[in-house]
Amino acid sequence: MKLKDKDTIVVVGGGPAGAFFAIHFLRLAKLRGLDAGLVIIEKKAETGLGDALPHFSCREGCNYCAGGLSPKLVEALEQEGLFLPEDVIAGTIRSLTIHGHWKNIELRVPEDKKMYAVFRGSRPKGRANQDRNFDSFLLEKAREAGAEVILGDVYDLRYSEEGKPIVFYHPMKSGGQGRSAEEAEGDPDADRERFRVSGEEGDRALEASFLVMAGGVNQSLGRPTEKNPFWDVVRKAVPAYSPPEVRRALICEVEIQEELEAFLEGEIYFVEYGSKTLKIEMSSLIPKGRYITAALLGRSVDDSRSGDNLALVNEYLELPQVKRILPFRAEMKPVCMCAPNMTVGAAAQVAGERAAVVGDMAWARLYKDGIYSAYLTATALARAVLEAGIDSQSLRAAYWPVIKDLKRDNDFGRILFMLNRLVFSNPTLSRILYQAVLTERKTEPERARRLAEILWKMASGDDTYRAGLRAMFHPLAVWSIIAGGLVLTVRNFLTEQTFGLRWHRLGRYPTGLHKEDMEQKREKLRPEGRPGFGSGRPAFESMYAITIKSEPNKIFRYLGTFGDRDRKYFRPRWLRVERVSGSPNEPGCLIRYKTPFRFLDFQVVLERQVEEKYLAYRVRDGFAEGGILIFDIEKAKPGVFVLSIYVAFDIARGKKWTEKIFWFFFRYFFPGFVHDVLWNHSLCQLKDIIEKDSY
Ligand SMILES: Cc1cc2nc3c(=O)[nH]c(=O)nc-3n(C[C@H](O)[C@H](O)[C@H](O)COP(=O)(O)OP(=O)(O)OC[C@H]3O[C@@H](n4cnc5c(N)ncnc54)[C@H](O)[C@@H]3O)c2cc1C
Q1: Ligand 1, closest atom to CA 44?
Q2: Distance separating alpha carbons of residues 323 and 404, to the nearest angstrom
Q3: In the predicted model, what is the mean pLDDT of residues 559-580?
Q4: Which of 65, 168, 368 best tests ligand 1's pocket when mutated (most atoms within 8 Å of CB)?
């Protein structure tokens, strides 16, 4: 059975799935020369179709979503000609940071990819541009494509004698340019009007040639889905329909002070563990100007009731791993929260006679990319309807296989997330993975970084779970984890124990540079006029960097305590570092390094300083004579600075043959990694004390 000219499609639900279906269907229909009408019935007046906001709010003013738009979705939108206006984009994401139990892994958004953060409705109350949001934008685009949008709450469904579905809805009030049900009644398009049949007093009914159900899984927010009366409506059209498995999530808009907006700008955080009392499996923090959207999943959320929401959110915001994301004394105020359902499976049946379900009601990608999932199901259904037909058999042949395939991918996703949870919630495994990613970052060119790519794809939803799992068990990836992760973790752990480095309550941040940034950093930091050491590269060269949320004068002042006996950083066992003459941060200031072995002792003298920007020490005496130690402070964004360290020295060669042999072997076996471990710990200490002293 095929659609004919003047047929009407009714779409229940004007969320992403409904809007995507409308846009795609109307475009394809036009290309095929089919003149069919399409009506979307959406119950939320507050989606704000137009300039002015309605005064009347039927439901919560959002679609209960963190609003992260994956690169795949942005690409798909742009292919459809849907370019997000600036006032709909609440944030452009440049990096994703995964907080595991050990350190944090930061993954940059590749230059050829785009990721955005958006609001999915007018909430939180009082935000600027409330009527500019993703769902309203899509509905506007659906209207531009020719869809009619009616504000109404669908509550029943019957079939006409002809076998066409008739949808019953309570009209909703609207503001702005949104068309109310009353306005729709007076539509001059007589052809379409004749498909409207009158319902009971006060209510309306619409007859459809084909019905698309895109109502999501949150009709009765916070209540178990099996008690959702909307499923009875759906089952009248798709008798074998059984809703997809859902999981209770917790979502909250957190307001921050205006001056803190810049701190998180462009970043998304995934915090993959909670605490002994707060069982969190995964959570995300997506900054959007004055707000951060926090979304949580885990046992504590599964077992909670609506009355527990605020307590859970407050406990979450107090977690050290969450608190560290913003400056120490930042205020995070939860202003809007709820516990919606998240689709984590697929419906048992998705199509009936002249009807089908899309979006969350049909399938969503496990824990990721629900909006892109809505796009996939909606566009697949639009194609199936036009190419195959609208009877249940045609839809089963053309639409169901797509859902089945997507559903299978979630099975791979379950394994992937199980491994993810296992690794990131375990300090040892998390540390091994962190180390492997870091080793890869320092040694491999960007395009050859397997582990970073796997994590990026998983975090951003940029590939199928099947491909992610396959990549994870690729022999080269396993080798990277063993050689670059396990072995180096053992080595670094032993180094930390030897030098008495303790991480208790200290934030752990990677300080190694990306391989591609090294040359640029080297060029910037190396003192002018001394391009090399002797004949070529120095025997030892290392660079580290850490971002610090503070002001440069503070960072500079703390760097000045470098030689103080009571400084709070760089205090490894076996090594005494003391200022022996001069004043902090003043040229000529002399600092002595004393070790248990005299031949390893040396001094550094401050040769050059640029106030609040740069300190260059030169090594005097000792095996590394002539070497340099440079500190550089550079602005990353307002209130956030990058402190970089450049260390380079040559190793003595000796005069006598015995000395020559000794220094030859010393150079060969010089444990450069000890330096990395000491400075990584020290930079994390510095960050901690400076940030605690800053806000
Ligand atoms: C906590 C949480 C965080 C998430 N974060 C992300 C994220 O960052 N990125 C991402 O891509 N996905 C995310 N998702 C998933 C995403 O929100 C959904 O997959 C997506 O919204 C599904 O779109 P949909 O159109 O199927 O359903 P919905 O967005 O729920 O839209 C359904 C629409 O139907 C309307 N409706 C319902 N019943 C009726 C009725 N009876 N009559 C008329 N209208 C009706 C509703 O008002 C609503 O507008 C998240 C989900 C949760 C729970």
Answers
A1: 47
A2: 41
A3: 94
A4: 65
